[in-house]
Amino acid sequence: MCGIVGYIGKKEAYPILMGGLSRLEYRGYDSAGVALGGRKDIRLYKRQGKVADLASFAEGKDISGTIGIGHTRWATHGEPSDRNSHPHLSQCGTVAVVHNGIIENYRELREDLGRHGYRFVSDTDTEAVAHLIEHICERTGTTFPEAVRLALREVVGAYAIVAISTGDPDTVVVARKGSPLVVGIGDGEFFIASDATAVAEHTRRVVYLEEGEMAVLRRNEEFYVSSINGHDERYPIVMEIEAELEAIGKNGFAHFMEKEIFEQPETILDSMRGRLDPETGEVRLNGIADHIDRLAEAERIIFVACGTSFYAAILGEYLIERYAGIPVEVDYASEFRYRRPLIRKKDFVFAVSQSGETADTLAAIRLAKEAGATVLGICNVVGSSIARETAAGIYTHAGPEIGVASTKAFTAQVTVLSLITLALAKRRKMLSDEELIRLGKELFAIPEKVKRALTKQNECREIAVEISRSSDAFYLGRGVCYPVALEGALKLKEISYVHAEAYPAGEMKHGPIALIEDGTPVIAVAPDGEIRDKIVGSIQEMKARKARVIAIVTEGDMATAALADRFVEVPVADEFVVALLAVIPLQLIAYYTAVTLGHDVDRPRNLAKSVTVE
Ligand code: F6R
């Protein structure tokens, strides 16, 4: 949830740490801080607010030093404040720690340390770890890395932790359990981050720490990786990351979210690149090549995911059941993990996740694995925890998504799910060759059509101005457009803070219609398709209650458009792929509503990009 950075080497640490924090700010941004190490003392600068506030605070202060750690926080324990910001110092100031995750037994640790005379200045769980490391060093006289190991053995919970100490000023110790951590290897230096994007500008060579591992990084270039529970060392496997730095910039757009919305023609194409031959309808999914035949025979596929990824999974359910004829269930990962689901060994479980680090989705994966199911992944972040913990999977190749509200990751997930559908339909002979070729061509044509859908900015902007004056909005869809409606409503809620609800259009009459008043905005996702007439009926019901109806219609469908107060056209497309088009105006409407209301679009309140805590 939070962002972690660290550095040890020959260069000045402060600018490197601050650069990394700025890149990671999207992960959490209620406060930020850095600690610069040394033999005499650790200098600590931290501030509630954004990284820019920290920079102003540190101006004119001693920011020299070649070792340091930093953190950008999204509060879990204790309100956002200067004193709750990370890094946290131990009582005598000998140890500084940054932490991402949640320490479940922090109350017990605090009580125990309290009995040894430790006083706490913050409300955080993390401060206990700083004290504990110092306490173990003093009590046992052991080395700093060993003290970290012993301390972590007492810690229950999830964490990525980076620590420095005055007692060992040429060493950084890092550890992970449940939260990602990556070490970048430079020229006689190490960069540490919770996300590879923060090290990419310095080095492409990285080592991902595995679950339950810690690493000791020394100024003399020594690098040891071992398990926290044992002492067994492993040889660090160095990987190359491909993140394009310019892909991390805003490319002239006002916000990352805007940039990511407009990137979709390319990202959708990237998701199918090398996987779909539009001439033959042939789909090649190398990532799951060893599983696809068995998957086609599956009695049941279960999707687990959260948020936007969950809505993509619902779309997957519609597609796979309809075109490939395999029963599909979709579950919120957070529910799946606790509702004691009946998982059979023959089941295939698909985890869908942009970040690949979502704690609930990871827990669902582990549960399914324990039950003996085959667990596959659909992930965007290469080398992420979900990618590594699943038997196999398909990357969505949408590139780094920085805007907290997911957009291009959603369309990339839907593209991959459409490819899976075609691959399964072919194996199960559910579609004729002609039909497979036709649908493959429909999918292949989507990037160009998304480009056209993106030209409707003005219409979407005008609609956004109207919605920005409302306190509520309703989104209606049916069939494949129901998950699109859900996603549109989530986007609006997340960044504009306008209350939004999505319903399958047929459900409105069973209760929610009571909420419709004169002028209530109702966005009806009504492109051409089998059930378009049904949604037309719902539009009429809404109009009869004086709702202000905004319809998303297929180009040229003036009959449906005429029923609405406003409309946005999307290009003609088969129902198999129409969701990829219908969602575009909804993303734009949410974006422009938030802009109209003056909100910080890329950093919406209370949200973080990757939810690595339960
Ligand atoms: C919505 C959004 C969240 C995520 C959810 C799952 O815009 O970004 O709802 O979709 O937190 O995250 P991932 O896909 O990273 O598992």
Q: Tell me the domain tally.
A: 3
Distance between the termini: 10 Å
* Mean pLDDT, all residues: 93
Q: Please identify the structural class as seen in this structure.
A: alpha/beta
CATH superfamily of the largest domain: Aminohydrolase, N-terminal nucleophile (Ntn) domain
CATH class of the largest domain: Alpha Beta
Query: Strands across the major sheet, in which order?
Result: 3-2-4-1-10-9-11-15
**Helical stretch tally:** 21
Question: How many strands appear in the DSSP assignment?
Answer: 27
* Large-scale geometry: globular
Tell me which CATH architecture of the largest domain applies here. Answer: 4-Layer Sandwich
* Helical residue percent band: 25-40%
Described by strand count, sense and barrel closure, the largest sheet is: 8 strands, antiparallel
Low-confidence stretches: none
Using the CA coordinates, give the radius of gyration. Answer: 25 Å
Strand content: 15-25%
